[in-house]
Specification:
Oligomer: single chain
Structural class: mainly alpha
Low-confidence stretches: 269-298
Number of helices: 9
CATH architecture: Up-down Bundle
Distance between the termini: 66 Å
Number of domains: 1
Largest sheet: none
CATH topology: Rhopdopsin 7-helix transmembrane proteins
Length: 298
C-alpha cells in the first residue's frame, strides 16, 4: 500500500475499527437478550443491525485500498456498499417508531383491531422501501457501463436518485419521530393510574432523549446527503476528515446510545410483549413492564 493519502487512509481504518466494536456490542446485546417466545420480527432486529454494521465496516476498510489504487471495484458496487447500511438501519428505527405508535394508540384507548393492524403497515412500508432500493440498484448495473473512481461518486441518474431517496428518508424519519415524540410527551404529561410518577417521568425522559437524538442526527444527515448528491467529490475527494466526523457523529454514536438504552431496559424489564409487532418491550421500547402488562389486561 502506497499511503499517498495517509490522513484519508487512517480515518477510514479507524472507522472500520469503530464499526467492528459496534458490531461486537450489537452481538453482545443480541446474545444476552431474552430467548423465550421469540417472534419473527423480534428475531431480525439485532441481525439487521449487525448486518448493517458489517457492511459499513467492509465499506470503510475498502476505501483506503481503492483510493490508493491497490485494487478497483465498480463505482456501482461502491455506491451500493455506501448506501445499503442506511436503509438497513432505517428498518431498526422504523421498528422503534411503530412500537411507540402502538403504545400511544393503546394509551388513547383505541380499538385493539387498529393496534393489531400495525404490523401490516410496518411490513408494507418496509417492502416499499426495499423494493424501491432493489429496483434502483438493479437499474444502476443494467442501464450503465461499469465505471471506476477512487471515491464513491454519484455518476449517473439512477445513482442521483439513490442518493436523493436516501437523503429524503432521513428527513421523513426525522419528521415522523418528531410528531410521535410530541404526541407521546403531551400524552404523558397526564397522570396515569397505571404508572407511578417515577415511571411516568422515566418514559418521558427516554422517549424525549431518543427522539431528540434521531431528529437532530437525521435532519443533519439528510441535508448532508442531499448536498453530497451534487458535490460528493468535494466531500470525499477534498475533505479527508469528513467521513470520520460524519459517520462517527451521526451514525456510530446514535446507534451506540440506542443499543445502550435497549440493553439498560433489558436489565430492567422482563416478559413484556407488543401485541402488534410481537417484539419484547425490553428489546425495543423503553417502557416500564409491569404497568404496561397491567394496562393490556384491563
Amino acid at each position: 500500500m502506497a499511503w499517498n493519502y495517509v490522513n484519508y487512509d487512517v480515518t477510514h481504518f479507524l472507522l472500520t475499527a469503530m464499526y467492528l466494536v459496534l458490531g461486537a456490542l450489537a452481538t453482545y446485546a443480541w446474545y444476552h437478550r431474552p430467548t423465550s417466545n421469540v417472534s419473527p420480527i423480534q428475531k431480525i432486529f439485532y441481525p439487521l443491525m449487525l448486518f448493517g454494521v458489517t457492511v459499513r465496516a467492509m465499506f470503510m476498510c475498502m476505501q483506503p485500498f481503492i483510493r490508493e489504487d491497490d485494487f478497483q471495484i465498480p463505482n456501482q458496487v461502491n455506491i451500493l456498499l455506501n448506501t445499503l447500511p442506511s436503509f438497513i438501519f432505517f428498518s431498526n428505527y422504523l421498528i422503534v417508531l411503530f412500537i411507540w405508535v402502538e403504545m400511544y394508540l393503546i394509551f388513547e384507548g383505541k380499538s385493539m383491531s387498529l393496534v393489531h393492524s400495525l404490523p401490516w403497515f410496518f411490513k408494507v412500508i418496509a417492502l416499499i422501501m426495499y423494493g424501491i432500493v432493489l429496483v434502483l440498484y438493479v437499474l444502476d448495473f443494467a442501464l450503465y457501463p461499469l465505471t471506476y473512481s477512487p471515491v464513491s461518486v454519484y455518476n449517473d441518474l439512477v445513482e442521483y436518485i439513490i442518493g436523493t431517496f436516501d437523503g429524503a428518508l432521513f428527513i421523513v424519519f426525522a419528521m415522523a419521530f418528531l410528531i410521535v415524540c410530541i404526541c407521546m410527551i403531551i400524552k404523558f404529561q397526564e397522570h396515569n393510574p397505571n404508572f407511578t410518577e417515577e415511571k411516568r417521568r422515566l418514559v418521558l425522559w427516554r422517549v424525549t432523549t431518543v427522539s431528540i437524538l434521531v431528529v437532530v442526527c437525521f435532519l443533519i444527515r439528510g441535508a448532508i446527503t442531499l448536498f453530497a448528491v451534487n458535490r460528493f467529490n468535494l466531500i470525499s475527494g477534498k475533505w479527508w476528515w469528513f467521513d470520520g466526523v460524519y459517520y462517527f457523529g451521526f451514525e456510530i454514536i446514535p446507534i451506540t446510545i440506542l443499543l445502550f438504552l435497549l440493553r439498560a431496559n433489558n436489565n430492567h424489564d422482563h416478559h413484556t410483549y407488543s401485541h402488534s409487532t410481537n417484539i419484547k418491550k425490553q428489546d425495543i421500547v423503553i417502557y416500564p413492564a409491569t404497568e404496561y402488562t397491567h394496562l393490556l389486561h384491563n
